[in-house]
Amino acid sequence: MKGCGSIVQVLRAVCLVCLLLIATAAMAQFGTQQPTPTSPQSQGSSNQSSTSILPNNISNSSAAQSQSVTSGADVFSGSVISGKATTQVLKLTLRNAIDRGLKQNLGALLTEQGITSAQAQRWRALQGLLPDLTARVGESEQQINLAAQGIRFPGVPTIIGPFSNFDARAFLTDDLGLSSYESIKSAVENLKAARFSYRNALELVVYSVSNTYLQVLTSAANVRNAEAQVATAQALVNQAEQLHQAGVTAKIDGLRAAVELQARKQDLVVARNNFAKAKIALARTIGLPLEQQYDLADTLQYIPAPAMTEAEALHDALQSRLDYKQAQAQVHAAELSARAAHFERLPSLAFSGNYGDIGISPGNSHGTFVAAAGIQVPVFDEGRIRGDIEQAQANLKQSKDQLSDLEGRIGAEVRSAMLDVNAAAEQVQLADSSVKLAQEELSEARDRFSAGVTDNLEVVQAQGSLVSAQDQYVSTLYIHNLAKLSLARALGEAQQNAASYLGGK
Question: Which H or E run includes 169?
Fold first, then answer.
């Protein structure tokens, strides 16, 4: 019977072991399940939208958080409004607008939180090397039933107590290894990358504010041109009426001039509406209250771009671009993370101990301590360590590929910006020449009409040509200034030189 009982116990033990193995496998399978991947099309569109608006991400966790907050929205066109509107009309220069944008633009404010997130990761990494020190003070009152514990001795009572126990003790544990040290260095590099990301966001803020300011200047120039055209059209109406009353021209000339005047007034209404909306967009970008009235102190003008060769521009861009420095810091952080993963196979030093005062009461106690040290060697952690190594190597390869792509993109951006600047400069010169020719054509047509040589059809056509030439000149001025702004952004010096590139006060 004893043999049968032993066999039953063995079978039970085997069954329990099998159940534990099955449960462990099921939990491992559940833990390794991957989330459903997104379609390549949707993933590509989301990456494109994030890289076109936001700076490069600090880390994988902060990138996911940033995309969840700013997905589908251009944060650099928004702001946090500061101050209250006043009755005075604010005189706003380009440099004032840039300064306000650097403080209140939503893109800068959101990106600044990435530094806080990276600092939190560094503190978590530092905790891996810092000792874990805790303290506990307690007092208990106990009564023990020895019979319930199976302890029975002749002459010894089965119930002991009640008695008190007091213990005040500090516990110290620490685990030192090269893996934790490399993780700290990686966290420091991620923090450096976060700071580069924030400074790069400030570059994008300057670009966004300057571009919006240029749009307001362009709209203001269109309003001035439209007002001048209305005045010219009104003068032509008056001239046609005087000539008709004198019997020199037909009534059709006056009607034709009146139709042209109405068309120019419609253009003026559209130009003023676009100007008002552009001012609203600028106020939203720099955090200015929408009720605040302001005028622009600068004007839209042609200023040649600084002379530089393509090789000099590429060298300056690689030295100054903050997103490139950020990508380099991310590569270094990924290298350190990969080293930390390899170092997980190495033994680590473990320290533990406690010191305290124990007794039946605080006044009747004695100090005791425990101090221990040892070497911990991972034995059955190869699967986890290998997974950490492969994941770290994949992140490193991804960071290096992104750095290489960014270097090529910087070269393309610099070359494209220089081509745009040169082409836009030629367009401005041609557009200026077209305006002068159109003005001469209109003057000649008015003289011919006044002399009675022809009707005012030539005058109306000449005025239409002048309108088109002036609109084209304003458009080319905006394109040229935007090209210079894009060149400053490509060189990584928008924050320092954007205002001087555009002739801001």
Answer: strand 159-176
Q: Are strands 294-296 and 90-92 parallel, antiparallel or unpaired?
A: parallel
Sign of CA dihedral 455, 461, 466, 467: positive
- Decide: 409 and 464 in contact? Cβ < 8 Å: no
> Can you name the residues that pair with 105 across neighbouring β-strands?
79
CB 428 within 8 A of CB 477: yes
135 three-class SS: strand
Quick check: 335 and 396 in contact, CB under 8 A? Answer: yes
- Please give the CATH architecture assigned to the domain spanning 74-134+178-351+382-501: Up-down Bundle (1.20)
Cα–Cα distance, 6 to 365 (Å, whole number):
49
Contact 214/478 with Cβ under 8 angstroms?
A: yes
Cα separation, 372 vs 271, whole angstroms: 82
Q: Give me Rg for the CA atoms of the chain.
A: 39
Domain coordinates in residue numbering, the chain: 74-134+178-351+382-501
Paired residues of 321 in beta bridges:
none
Q: Are 111 and 205 in contact (CB under 8 A)?
A: no
Give CA–CA dist 118/50, Å, rounded.
20
By CB atoms closer than 10 A (0-12, 13-18, 19+), residue 171 is middle
Pairing of the two strands 90-92 and 132-145: unpaired
| 3-class state of residue 359 by DSSP | strand
Question: Is pLDDT larger for residue 449 or for residue 96?
Answer: 96
Q: Rounded distance, CA 425 to CA 171, Å? A: 74
Q: What is each CA distance from 73 to 46, 57, 290, in whole angstroms?
A: 11, 16, 20
Q: How many Å separate Cα 152 from the centre of its chain?
A: 74
Contacts of 435 (CB under 8 A, 6+ apart): 466, 469, 470, 473
Under a CB-based contact definition with an 8 Å cutoff, are residues 295 and 219 in contact?
no
What are the tens digits of pLDDT across the range 305-359? 888 899 999 999 999 999 999 999 999 999 999 988 888 888 888 888 899 888 8
Secondary structure letter of residue 401 according to DSSP: H
Question: Which helix (H) or strand (E) is 368 found in, with range?
Answer: strand 364-376
Beta bridge partners of 355: 170, 369
Measure the CA–CA gap between 400 and 406, rounded to whole angstroms.
10
pTM metric for this prediction? 0.70
Q: How far is CA 156 from CA 150, 152, 162, 236, in A?
A: 13, 7, 15, 127
Helix (H, G, I), strand (E, B) or coil at 365: strand
* Cα–Cα distance for residue pair 422/136, rounded to 1 Å: 74
pLDDT tens-place string over residues 446-490: 888 777 777 777 888 888 888 889 889 999 999 999 999 999 999
Q: What does the alpha-carbon distance between residue 317 and residue 403 come to, in Å, rounded to a whole number?
A: 14
φ, ψ of residue 247 in degrees (nearest 5): 80, 15
